Amino acid sequence: MSDDTSRHIKASMEPDIQSIVDRIKTGKATRIVVLTGAGISTGAGIPDFRSPNTGLYDKLAPLRLPYPEAIFHVNYFSHTPEPFYAIARARHPGNLKPTVTHAFLALLAKKNLLHFVFTQNIDGLEQDAGVPPDKVLWTHGNWKSQHCYKCKSSYPDDLMNKAIRTGEVPYCLDTGCGGAVKPDVVFFGQSLSAEFDEKEKEVLEADLMLVMGTSLRVAPCSRLPRLVRRGIPRVLINNEKAGDLGNRDDDVCILGSCDDGVRQLADALGWGEDLNDLWEEAVATKKNDQTFEGGPSLDECIEKLASSIKDKMKVSDGHKRMLENHLNSKFGHIITKGHG
Ligand code: OAD
After folding, report:
1. Is 14 annotated as a binding residue?
2. Quick check: CB of 241 below 6 Å from ligand 1?
3. What is the pTM of this model?
4. Tell me, what's the pLDDT at 340?
5. Which residues have C-beta within 8 Å of that of residue 35, sequence separation ≥ 6?
């Protein structure tokens, strides 16, 4: 996985929702392919990554990481897994409820219009909302299993849950190995599953593409919208423009919240009530996972780690005097008080 910052956006235009509604109503769109990102789950209470101020990467500033994405980079994790575990509980999907947007995907599936969903999210809320799992590829993996990053041994679920609950890094049970255990989510520096290459072809079969809640800044998912055949509409439902969506004549950009955007579409299609019913059912059905109930907020987790880092780096006055005395007695001729 890598960053993809190439963006070519044409001038903004009014969304032509009616053209999409007509296409669906006249049966011209029956193989809808969807690409989703963190923005479809912010309504469930989990911050996205790159939104200024509210996104995870801005919130991580107090941790002074070498760069924000380092927290999810496999090389950084290999020697400093603490930041990942400090925030893991606050991002764990245990107690999240599906949003209206997740329910909209389930509604498309129910109406036999959903060809395939590529999600970059690891929260599993698509399935919780009722999207059949064989219609979804969790391109960046999930929290359901975990392995030692080093020797790849598996690690028991109950111990992993405990680690996420307490924020303490779990280490490989093979004491000779000592590697940190990592959930089977795809980190930067790792490859996506081979299934991605296989499923990518589904995009060529799309007769409509929906792109929702993603900045399209991370490859390889960012390239999927460009694979849509010419003449096939691509609909972006997002707070901001993303990738090259809006550049083609048939593109439709509905800027604003995903939940509002899908409601607008559903209402125009006459599906408003169905959508609401499905959403309410999904919210009621999702059981809370007591393992993760009542944990600290993301901001509290970050604050706690930031102050523990500060404490570790802090040298007490007494310790400082002892070090100065020691250095003076050893190197007094070259190090004098007030230098260095
Ligand atoms: P980003 O945070 O990069 O982008 C989220 C997009 O959703 C932004 O364009 C927001 O403006 C938009 N957005 C946020 N809330 C919204 C809402 N309620 N309604 C509409 N739009 C909203 O997240 P992704 O594109 O998913 O990978 O990021 C891709 C990958 O980068 C992630 O899977 C993650 C990250 O680093 C790893 O951690 C390995």
Report:
1. no
2. no
3. 0.88
4. 31
5. 117, 118, 119, 120, 209, 210, 211, 212, 214, 221, 224, 225
